[in-house]
Every structure is written in C-alpha cells, then in structure tokens.
Automatic annotation (TrEMBL):
GO terms for biological process: fatty acid elongation. InterPro entries: NAD(P)-bd_dom_sf, Sc_DH/Rdtase_CS, SDR_fam. It comes from the Bacteria. This is NAD-dependent oxidoreductase. One of its GO terms (molecular function) is oxidoreductase activity, acting on the CH-OH group of donors, NAD or NADP as acceptor. Transmembrane segments: none annotated. Belongs to the short-chain dehydrogenases/reductases (SDR) family. SUPFAM superfamilies: NAD(P)-binding Rossmann-fold domains.
C-alpha cells in the first residue's frame, strides 16, 4: 500500500473507517467520500469529501475529480457505500427496492464510471466492490437487499470484462459483518460466526494491492464460519 492513492466510499461507516485506517497505516494516501458530514481538514496524505450523494452521477463525478486533483492521481477505488433493508416482498414497499438499488448499485456504478479514466492510467488500477454472500441465495425478507447486491456482482463482472488489462475489478461477498449496529439488531446471534471489519479489510486491501494483479472478475465470499 505504500504510496498508493485509494478512494474509499462510505469511509465514515464501520467498515469504511477500518479499511481507510488500515490502508493509511500501511503507507497509502486516502480520499474518503461519504454522505455523512466530516470536520477533518485535508492533508497531503488524507482528504475527506463529505455530504456526497453517490447515487447522483454528477455529485459522484465531482467528488472523484476532487480526490484526483488533490493527490494528482488515483490507484484504487473501494466501493463500500451502501445500505440494508429487511422487508418481505409481498408486504413491502416499492420504494424500498428503489432505495436499495440507489444505495448499493448506483453508488458503485457512478463512482466507478467517474474513477475509471484515472485508474486506467495507473500502473495498477483497482476497483473493489462490496457484494453480499446473502445475494447468492436470498432468504425471506432479503429480496430488495439481495437483488441490489446481485446487481453489484454483475456490475463487477461486466466492468472486469470491459476493462481487462487496464483495471482489475473484484468484489468481496461478506456474511454478516460484526458491527455495533448489527449486534444491536440481532442481540441473540452468535457473533463469533460473523466476519469482523478487520478480516474483511485484509481481503479488500489484498485485492487493491500489487499482489492481486492477476485477479479480476472474482466474487470472493468472506466469513460464514460454521
């Protein structure tokens, strides 16, 4: 990671913070993009671009261009921004499906489209998306979320094919991530079976590294301990 320039979307969330902090500790320079507000000042090693709705293509492009201008180049895009909803299909609201598509598919699509021209001129351009193990086979109540994450999987494969030889594009498919929010929502669950943000960050940063130059179009399940 030494000297790499990484954009991390959803950088102020539970997973985004761990990915950004881990990459920074290994010598990467980080542009964090998030919808949430930030009061941190920019430095030569780090910038946070807040208040960005990545489901809007114009806002996404503006944020990506600001990051590229700040550092002079981009090497990797980590698409973590997203959302979750649990809703039964028959009793649900159509707007939930729209919201999941916007939060999970459009954020990754818009950020990727804006970043790709910059990544293509890097010696090791990388995109890492966040899919979901639950999108491989959706259970009850998982329809809107799983459908949107399945869209991320297909987006990953399409981009990997279209940019082969220029930018690698992969996705990690976590099981349930061990966060405070998930523990509060599922207090009776066995947390030891969940994947930790640090475990997930290690896989993400491997895919963003030089060592993963031969890996593209991969959908990698992470977690799911028995």
């Amino acid at each position: 990671m030494q000297g790499k320039v990484l954009i991390v979307t959803g950088a102020l969330g539970a997973l985004g913070k761990v990915v950004a902090e881990t990459a920074r500790s290994r010598g990467a320079r980080i542009a964090g993009i998030d919808h949430a507000p930030s009061q941190i000042s920019a430095t030569p090693e780090s910038i946070e671009i807040s208040g960005v709705d990545l489901s809007d293509a114009t806002q996404a492009k503006t944020a990506i261009e600001a990051a590229a201008k700040h550092f002079g180049r981009l090497d990797a895009l980590i698409n973590i921004a997203g959302g979750f909803a649990f809703e039964i299909v028959g009793d649900g609201d159509f707007t939930t499906w729209q919201r999941m598509y916007a939060l999970n598919v459009l954020t990754a699509l818009n950020a990727s489209r804006a970043a790709l021209p910059h990544l293509a001129v890097s010696k090791a351009g990388r995109i890492v998306n966040i899919g979901a193990m639950g999108a491989l086979q959706a259970g009850s109540g998982m329809g809107p979320y799983a459908a949107s994450k399945a869209g991320v999987h297909r987006l990953t494969e399409a981009l990997a094919s279209e940019w082969k030889g220029k930018v690698t594009v992969n996705a990690v498919l976590p099981s349930i991530i061990d966060t405070k929010a998930n523990r509060a929502d599922m207090p009776k669950a066995d947390f030891s079976k969940w994947v930790t943000p640090q475990e997930l960050a290690e896989v993400i940063l491997f895919l963003a590294s030089d060592a993963a130059s031969g890996v593209t179009s991969a959908l990698i399940p992470v977690g799911g301990r028995v």
